[in-house]
């Protein structure tokens, strides 16, 4: 594969910075290597729901590979967040499996999944509003015992506004800046895969573009990114792989380009 990003709609290479290669996941969180042929992270035919409630997911499969951005779209209540929570271990997966780097992690707690290299930014309450920006980043690194300063500098490099506001309470920041704090917090563990649930929720189109550019920049360092997005069209434009979920099931799967070109997907989910 000569160009891992060839399928992506966003051709703006000006945001690529070689220096960000150092954001690449460190070797300290595990020794596992992907099974040959298997995606780096996969929720494989997951069926499950909350507590003893009914199944929300029905044989739902979501995967992201190294160097990729995978995007989950679909109507409200389709189970997008539920699929993310299932991958992260916050849901009872009654059938199916979650595998990370070839290892079955279906039974692991979320904490253990973080240790295995999963970084997750939930849809809501993803920052500590009364803490400063820098304290939020420090909290993100809670599982680490080594020097976190270089990673913090990388996060500030990626999101310069956070450095400017590092001593300010995160709750005082704008919506877009808070999302940067949330993503930065997740990066502090030096994850091997980054999962973002609606990282552009409630921000202006300009801020959305900016956040997408930063996410592409992170993905270019080799860190696989799996994200849920309500801005379906824009998200599929930057997606190597896209999933349309409907009522907890895979309705359409393909490259971002394929889904954008699919008349049925356009009609039902992209406004024609
Ligand atoms: N904690 C919970 N306990 C029980 N049911 C839940 C819980 N969270 C979500 N659900 C149900 O699961 C279904 C899927 O919800 P989910 O939040 O995964 O959808 P979504 O696709 O992320 O929607 P949105 O676009 O609004 O974020 C809904 O029927 C919802 O009511
Ligand atoms: Mg959701």
UniProtKB/TrEMBL annotation:
* Annotated SMART domains: AAA (SM00382)
Query: A single GO BP annotation from the record?
Result: L-amino acid transport
Locate the compositionally biased regions of type Basic and acidic residues: 1-20
**Keywords from the named record:** Amino-acid transport, ATP-binding, Nucleotide-binding, Transport
The record ties this protein, via PROSITE patterns, to: ABC_TRANSPORTER_2
ABC transporter domain span: 40-272
Q: Does the keyword ATP-binding apply?
A: yes
Concerning Pfam families, the annotation shows: ABC_tran
Q: Per the similarity annotation, which family is this?
A: Belongs to the ABC transporter superfamily.
Put simply, this protein is called ATP-binding cassette domain-containing protein
State the species of origin: Maritimibacter harenae
């Amino acid at each position: 594969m000569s160009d891992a990003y060839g399928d992506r709609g966003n051709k703006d290479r000006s945001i690529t910075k070689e220096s960000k290669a150092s954001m690449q996941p460190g070797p300290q969180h595990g020794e596992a290597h992907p099974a040959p042929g298997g995606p780096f992270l996969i929720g494989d035919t997951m069926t499950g729901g909350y507590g003893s409630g009914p199944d929300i997911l029905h044989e739902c499969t979501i995967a992201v590979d190294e160097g990729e951005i995978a995007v989950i779209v679909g109507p409200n209540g389709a189970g997008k967040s539920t699929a993310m929570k299932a991958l992260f271990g916050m849901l009872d997966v009654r059938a199916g499996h979650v595998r990370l780097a070839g290892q079955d992690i279906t039974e692991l707690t979320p904490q253990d999944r973080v240790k295995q290299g999963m970084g997750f930014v939930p849809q809501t309450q993803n920052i500590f509003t009364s803490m400063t920006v820098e304290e939020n980043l420090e909290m993100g690194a809670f599982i680490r015992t080594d020097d976190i300063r270089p990673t913090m500098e990388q996060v500030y490099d990626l999101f310069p506004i956070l450095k400017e506001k590092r001593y300010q309470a995160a709750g005082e920041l704008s919506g877009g800046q808070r999302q940067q704090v949330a993503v930065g917090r997740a990066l502090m563990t030096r994850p091997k895969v980054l999962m973002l649930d609606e990282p552009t929720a409630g921000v202006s189109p300009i801020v959305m573009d900016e956040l997408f550019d930063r996410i592409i920049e992170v993905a270019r360092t080799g860190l696989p990114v799996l994200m849920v997005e309500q801005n379906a069209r824009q998200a599929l434009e930057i997606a190597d792989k896209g999933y349309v979920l409907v009522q907890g099931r895979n309705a359409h799967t393909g490259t971002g380009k394929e889904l954008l070109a699919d008349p049925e997907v356009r009609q039902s989910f992209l406004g024609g």
